[in-house]
Amino acid sequence: MMATVPEGLDPYGWVAPLLAACAFVLIPWTLVLAYRLPARHTSHHWDVAWVGFDLALAAALAATGWAIARRSAWAPSAAAIAATLLFCDAWFDVVLASGHDGQVEALLEAVLVEIALAIFLVWLARDCEQTVAAVMNALRRDR
Hints:
This protein is an all-alpha fold. The protein contains 5 helices and no strands.
């Protein structure tokens, strides 16, 4: 049974313009931040922010694995969330790394682990059933 949407509440009519307006407003706001924010800032809860972010990332990865194992309909959404968090993690790790050694380590981790896994998860989110089948077939051939 298909739910009917009342006239004027059709999401196709207002969601796209709303998101476009948000993106449009975000551009000047970003320019204001670029001008006003200091290049250096000390935070009292730096550790809490990173631990919380990594816990959210771990939860997203676990949820994705669980959803795939259960063949859940929301597996592609979980994979997309995990991929997004991995891309964000790579960005902040690289941008916030201090010292030459820290930057090299962050870049290597970003390219070899976070971005690689994020791209795999995007592929998985795009075509979940076929991706899982392809990976399982590849694993079977390696045996």
